[in-house]
Design brief:
Helix content: under 10%
Number of strands: 11
CATH topology: Jelly Rolls
Distance between the termini: 11 Å
Order of helices and strands: EEEEEEEEEEE
Number of helices: 0
Radius of gyration: 14 Å
Largest sheet: 4 strands, antiparallel
CATH class: Mainly Beta
Oligomer: single chain
Shape: globular
Length: 120
């Protein structure tokens, strides 16, 4: 069975987004961690809530997540990703975005990549 890796990147939004909540990213083997390392909200039992982090920092990961493109000592640092063998959208883990109620958005840009990788 293949593993589906779902990295999610939301283009930088300078104002309006006040928080996002989601499941923390996953590790892939012993050398690549797809975690939201800069998240400033609550992290409890693998759930992120009430903060901001890498999804809105404006840095898009390079296509080869095995690189340390920013030289921070972590391969895949720019990526937040989840491993799952669930393929139906109804089974997806939500990403909830909290925003300023007085902000009008005309567009939300996302970059989502699906990678079918061998199971670790």
């Amino acid at each position: 069975m293949s593993i589906v890796s779902l990295p999610l990147f939301i283009d930088y939004i300078s104002d309006g987004v006040v928080s996002y909540s989601m499941r923390q990213g996953d590790r892939r083997g012993s050398d690549v961690e797809f975690l939201d390392f800069t998240y400033d909200g609550d992290v409890t039992d693998g759930q992120l809530s009430g903060g901001l982090g890498q999804l809105v920092d404006g840095d898009e990961g390079v296509p080869n997540f095995r690189l340390d493109a920013q030289n921070v000592g972590r391969r895949g640092y720019e990526w937040v990703a989840w491993k799952t063998d669930r393929v139906r959208p109804a089974d997806a883990d939500p990403v909830e975005i909290g925003h300023d109620p007085f902000k009008l958005y005309k567009r939300l840009n996302t970059s989502i990549r699906f990678s079918f990788l061998p199971k670790d």
